[in-house]
Amino acid sequence: MTADLFTAAEPVPAKPSDRAVTEDLMARLKRHYIKPGAPLPGGVFVPEVGQNGSWGRGRRCDAIYVGFTGTSGRLLVGHEVKASRADWLTELAQPGKADTWADECHEWWLVTVPGVVHDGELPDGWGLMVPGRSKTRMQVVTPARRKPADHRPSWDAVRSVIARQDTLRQDAIREGIAAGTAKVYEAQEARVQDLVEQRLRARGDVESISAELDRIRRALGVTRVLPSEERAFRDSECTEADLADVAALLRHHGTLAEAAWGLVSRYGEHPFMQLRRAVDAVDRARQAVINSIREGSAHGS
Predict the structure, then answer these.
(1) Which one, of 74, 67, 69, 29, lies nearest residue 48 by Cα?
(2) What angle do CA 45, 146, 142 make, to 5 degrees?
(3) Cα-flanking dihedrals φ and ψ of residue 83, to 5°?
(4) 3-state class of 238 per DSSP?
(5) Is-above-0.70 flag for pTM?
(6) pLDDT (mean) for 1-19
């Protein structure tokens, strides 16, 4: 007994709303007549058709199918869609409510779910459709009575169907334009975002290169690097040619110390340097003679 009290109850599935049931019924009904993707379906399915003009006292038909081919019977078929028992009882409480459209159509159908219509409630001549096992076809519970071949819907009814179809066409065009515009905006947003990311990456590269150049200038002890064709007049300046010479020396000698030794050795063999060493030798010899004379004089005295 205690175990039963604490046993978790099975969750009860939420009952779909009338709106959800209606949307499902309308989708199934459209597939019943129109094969998805068919280039020439042989007819049109027009939902929620109101009256164009002043006729019909504002009555609306939930769905109209207009057949164009011999296979479809070239019929005007009307449908009343009811999502629940309560919805159907409200319809039954208003006798004649559907007559405006039912009288115009070659066939008139009630479209609902199983269990909504009880025995004896379906008006005379109405057909009854409910969802079947197939997702593409409705199940016919009671066939609708078809009007004679010479039945001709009024121009008011035909015009109303055409007007509603034209409205749906305009809505589809607007939706298509809106969808196309949205795709263009999405593409532009993606392009702008890509450009921003490229600029940010480029900015990072520029900042990195700038920092590297600052380090090079500090290491060289210069503030400006001039083009090769210009001449540096300040100690804080050098030219591109100067940097090229330094780079060439480093490539040739391997290290800065080796490059400096190479320069000293090379300039050490210059004629000017040889002359300088000779003059220095003469100066040293002259100084030695002078020192010797001074010492002799000192001893003679």
Answers:
(1) 29
(2) 85
(3) -90, -20
(4) strand
(5) no
(6) 64
- Strand 76-81 to 61-67 pairing: antiparallel
Helices (H) and strands (E) in the chain, counts: 8, 8
| Spatial CA neighbour of 79 closest among 65, 69, 96 | 65
> CA 143 to CA 129: how far, in whole Å?
8
* H helix or E strand, kind and range, residue 26: helix 18-33
If you search the block for the tokens 């006729």, which residue do you land on? 55
| Tokens standing for residue 274 | 């040889």
| Amino acid in the structure at residue 141 | V
The number of beta carbons lying within 10 Å of the beta carbon of residue 106 is 20
Question: Which CA distances in Å does 5 have to 2, 8, 13, 23, 139?
Answer: 5, 8, 21, 40, 44
Q: Which helix (H) or strand (E) holds 66?
A: strand 61-67
- Angle, vertex CA 22, rays to CA 52 and CA 96, nearest 5: 50
Place of tokens 């590269």: 205
User: DSSP states of 120-186 as a string?
Assistant: T-SPTT-EEEEE-S-SSSEEEEEPPPPPPTT----HHHHHHHHHHHHHHHHHHHHHHHHHHHHHHHH
Q: Residue 112: what are its φ and ψ, rounded to 5°?
A: -155, -170
Q: Residue 226: helix, strand or coil by DSSP?
A: strand
Ordered by start, the domain boundaries in the chain are 12-170, 237-300
Q: What is the tens place of the pLDDT at every residue in 42-79?
A: 999 999 999 888 776 778 999 999 999 988 889 999 99
With b for 16 or more beta-carbon neighbours within 10 A and e for fewer, the 212-240 pattern comes to eeeeeeeeeebeebbeeeeeeeeeeebbe
CA distance 268 to 289: 28
